[in-house]
Amino acid sequence: ADVLPYLPEACLNERRFLLAALAANGLALRHLGKALRNEIETVLTAVRSSGVAVRFAGEQLQERVDFALQAVDANPLAFEHLPVAMRTQPDVVANAVLASPAMIRFAAPQLRGNARFLDFVERLRQR
Questions:
Q1: Measured between alpha carbons, how far is 27 from 36 in angstroms, rounded to an integer?
Q2: Better-predicted residue by pLDDT, 18 or 92
């Protein structure tokens, strides 16, 4: 159950409690304030639990390639829920596909249809 909206503010300010709650239910990230949703450790804890949680990351994080790479490393299923701009980044797509080949279907069309890029990813997979 999603209990974060019903907890006293003091609980949400206790870092260990907050991270434990997000580890149990990553989607609870949506109930946190802007500052916490832009904090990489908080968001990645949620993403490890649920790839969908990446949707609730703050705008500042959503625009960063380094964050997208970390989110995919934390949970390859997050790739599907990254902003389109991140799904056009070759490094992000390659990491997602290496972790889970089925993720190629969520890559931007220009990468999905690029034979050179697909060959490159295949060579990485064979290492």
A1: 14
A2: 92
